[in-house]
Amino acid sequence: MARNRQRGRSGAAEGVVEAVDGGLAELIPDRDRPRGWTLLIDGAPQSHVDLDDPALLTFEYQRRLGHVIDLAAPAGRPIHAVHLGGGAFTLARYLAATRPRSTQQIVEVDERLVRLVRDRLPLDPGARVRVRSADARAGLGRLPDGWADLVIADVFSGARTPAHLTTAEFLAEVRRVLKPGGTYAANLADGPPLAHLRGQIATAATVFPELALATDPTVLRGRRFGNAVLVGSDRSLPVAELTRRVASDPHAGRVEHGKALRDFTGGAVAVTDAAARPSPVPPPAVFR
Predict the structure, then answer these.
(1) 65 with 110: CB under 8 angstroms?
(2) 28 Cβ partners below 8 Å, 6+ apart?
(3) Is the pLDDT of residue 112 over 50?
(4) What is the pLDDT of residues 146-156, one digit of tens each?
(5) What is the pTM of this model?
(6) How far apart are CA 215 and CA 74, in angstroms?
(7) What local confidence, expressed as pLDDT, does residue 158 receive?
(8) 171, 184 in Cβ contact below 8 A?
(9) Cα–Cα–Cα angle for 118, 123, 128, nearest 5°?
(10) Rounded CA gap, 26 and 3, in Å?
(11) Which stretches of 150-190 are DSSP H helices?
């Protein structure tokens, strides 16, 4: 049964709780923003969105993906973008606000989550955003060669990235869909000993000649579980500007690239479909 009340007697927004395909979805109102909401799935925070200010990114990893969006093309220029994983459509809203007239495709496997977000957190009707309910890899396979300037992968099932979205074969499909000079960005989650993160970097290196990684230094040093944003392209990446922006975030981060990033992999081998595993289960304390 869904609990769908939007306003209490005081006029303040109330939460929404509804079963979706991937578990129990909760929309929690932001007490500081009248139309701000946080989406949780089975207690794990997924997205934050402010319908009055779609250019606001509050989650640390989403801010870093926002920097990638900003640097994917000259400021304000419309682009073609693919979002693998929808959540509350936060990054698609951000891109539509900062790059008007962009054309975007969201691929989200959870059809009931898509309906919930469309109903409770509607997209700007003027935004050129198409939402498709499909598996991320299957949806990517339906896109034509060289369509996208940017592909963002932010897919989690039960707080884990599905195995088939961690492989060299998957990234070959991403590369196919990207235009020459296009950018790939992925939200990865890992903790000590960082075997998954090292493997994902090694895997991306088989497909993209240029890589950069943005994350919290404590995550990079294996001191805690957290998110890291991996960026790949066949062109030189704007590493200096990305580094400056990440270092200026409220929770300052660090960017690794080049030899330092190659050394960080520590000899990890690329992941293939035959040997793929989901990303690690986050420790319970992560969401407390």
Answers:
(1) no
(2) 15, 37, 38, 39, 40
(3) yes
(4) 999 999 999 99
(5) 0.94
(6) 24
(7) 79
(8) yes
(9) 120
(10) 9
(11) 168-177
